[in-house]
Amino acid sequence: MSAGSDDELREEREHLRRSQLALQGMHQQAREMEIAGGDPVVDKVTIAYLKAARERMLATFTDQDEAAPLFFGRLDYTKDAPTVPDQRIYLGRRLVREAAGDDPLVVDWRAEVARPFYRAHPGDPMGLTARRRFGFDRGELTAFEDEPLTAATSTVSGKLLEQEIKRPRSGPMRDIVATIQPEQDDIVRADIATSICVQGAPGTGKTAVGLHRAAYLLYTHREWLQRAGVLVVGPNRAFLGYIATVLPALGEFTVTQRSVTDFLDTVTVGRTDSAEVAVLKGDARMATVIRRALDGAVRAPSAPVRIVTRTGRWTVGTDETAEILAAVRSAPFRYGVGRAMFARRIASAVRRQAEATGGDVTDRALETLARSRPVRDALETIWPKIDGPTLVHRLFTDAAFLAATADGVLTVDEQRLLLAPGGSARGVRTARWSLADTYCVDEAQDLIEKVPGYGHVIVDEAQDLSAMQCRALARRCEDGSLTVLGDLAQGTSAWAANSWSTILSQLGKPSAHLEVLTRSHRVPAEILAFANRLLPRIAPDLPAARSVRSVPGALTLARTDPALLVAEVTEQARRALKSEGSMAVVAADRFVPTLTAALRDVDLPIVELRDDTAVGRALLVPASLAKGLEFDHVVLVDPAAIVAGEGEPTRGLRRLYVAFTRAVTSLTVVHAGDLPAALGAQP
Q: Which of 246, 406, 489, 649 has its CA 20 to 30 A from that of 380?
């Protein structure tokens, strides 16, 4: 790393000041921008779009904080570069220019001209003579480092890149625009029509890649995606809190972010199923049962439909009504659409009779006929109105209905599992729903009326999705594309899949392109090698991840007397708090209350992480909430207890693998008994 000559450093600082002034000017211009009134009805969409654009500009052109310098890199192009007239490009998180039409002072990292910053290398310099990275300290430009890209150069990375990758963090996740690697850039800039599945080992940046892909797609397909929408789905609310600031830091404020646990709001979750029941309700066979239940709601007509109008009395006979019913049901209509179509066709039968006698039934009169009391009564008898909660509630409380619907799909024992004890005593309005129930309700609701979708959906920790959860997500990207992120080695749910082909089929994208990331940029080699000992037991078909970073002393195994375990944990936590960056104590869920009390007794400022807790600098993390999070320093408590907490050996070892790989600087493993045998001999 070099601070360069004093003159060069002064020039770069001057460019930074000039860019900062230009950004302030853009912010002021956005503040003063007026939206033309126009016709409030005719121009409603245009006005709304312009107002949204103005709000986005106001939110985007804010002053930069010290963690997000205005630019992070510079590209020096050769003099004959065809598309870069100035031969020098500064890259940042957003476009900055002094006036409309001027050449930009800072180019958005997503622009095509920025691609060589992430992809150029000595074998293919992509028109560059050099790539420059900048070092900042509290917003002050302190250094720069040039990476020459001549054929004789043996390497294109340097200390500033390494420092940025391992820079300590004090809370939520940061963006990685300054450090995106070529294999990550391939995914980020993939075409919107391409659905991608990323199998990413710990520390490979798969979550960041998914979020940056969202930002890139919004940049390149702004108009369409602002209408169609982008959805990010994570495993829990704590995870969403951890990633919440990444997209806003990249200038994107319109992405919907939901967790799997509160993804659906048709009914409110108020109870927890046993693991056995949850697995059954998450099984793909439930979709067949629910479809059968809805089909069974439609009954054959048993009487003619008689209608009296001002022009006469009309009868649609039982046989004709049955023919109309059969014709409608043979078409691929959803339940609600089919119901409305059935009513209109009954009305059309009356229209034909009236026209045969010289009458005239207008289209408006036809719609009135379809809504008439006799047709509505017949409709309620033959094709009754129903909603998802009502259907699923009956399915799980009415033994006879379930038996008739699930015959040949679920065993008798499985049917008994589904029946809620005492459930029939509760009406649908007072029913207590589980998380798995909500996905069954969503399945039913979509059969009745199509749920709205998104232009692009990003799903993180997808290896833990049940088949019914996958189906719910598939419905929301049926007409769009999908980015699937996960790691089969970290599958800890009872329904975790062992192959991406299974998950992708359930997500409705069986031909999605699979990318495998094995180069870990965050987790030190010493920690990753220790965690990789578990792979033969938890994911024998996956390639072991390799780290690009070695941190001597990163792994510490601290064995202690059982009676002193808590005291040792508090002492290790105290030491970790003295280090720079974030820290976490990670423990089996059942052990968290004991540790909470112990940490409070010794006045350590460590907050217990819950589903709705903001991710701060120092946390006590239940192992069940650790997935997807990273901390500079981790004190891991009693690995054997984490394994035992899952109740099933393979899932327990996967949970331990997750816990081991949360640390990006140091991991201290505190244990009283032997380490799990799957780890082999201690290092």
A: 406
